[in-house]
């Protein structure tokens, strides 16, 4: 079992930055791939980024590549999402997730946090 708690969301102007954190409980954190997804009102949950168990491999959605960076600290049981050059279209509820599969599909992930809201004003 893994419990995930996100933090770091907020309101920021376009062009600004935010860093999201996701604190995980459980001794098996380092064995999971960790991902970030987001969901805007009226839209489906979409993939943002994923990092493998060791942090040696990452994958990003085309819409955020070059602007967002995912990282993890297996000592602190935390995964991060550094978001730079934010755009109004990045506005969404951002979810942290953990799973055994390397995937961009939300159905492949077993554990989810409650989400943290990111709002980017123009």
Question: What fraction of the residues are assigned to beta strands by DSSP?
Answer: over 45%
Biggest pleated sheet: 7 strands, mixed
Number of helices: 0
Secondary-structure-based class equals mainly beta
Helix content: under 10%
- CA-atom Rg in angstroms: 13 Å
Low-confidence stretches: none
End-to-end Cα distance, whole Å, is 40 Å
Which word captures the global form? Answer: globular
User: Could you spell the SSE succession in H and E letters?
Assistant: EEEEEEEEEEE
- The beta-strand count equals 11
Mean pLDDT: 96
Structure description:
With 122 residues, this protein is mainly β. The chain is 0% helix and 50% strand. The chain has no helices and eleven strands. Strands 2, 4, 5, 6, 9, 10 and 11 form a seven-stranded mixed beta sheet that branches. The chain is globular. The model has no long low-confidence stretch (mean pLDDT 96).
């Amino acid at each position: 079992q893994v419990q995930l708690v996100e933090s770091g969301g907020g309101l920021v102007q376009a062009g600004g930055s935010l860093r999201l954190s996701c604190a995980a409980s459980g001794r098996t954190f380092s064995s999971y791939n960790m991902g970030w997804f987001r969901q805007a009102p009226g839209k489906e949950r979409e993939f943002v980024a994923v990092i493998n168990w060791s942090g040696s491999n990452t994958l990003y959605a085309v819409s955020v590549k070059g602007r967002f960076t995912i990282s993890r600290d297996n000592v602190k049981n935390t995964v991060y999402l550094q978001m730079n050059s934010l755009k109004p279209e990045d506005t969404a509820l951002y979810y942290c997730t953990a799973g055994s599969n390397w995937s961009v599909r939300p159905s492949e992930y077993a554990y989810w946090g409650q989400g943290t809201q990111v709002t980017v004003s123009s």
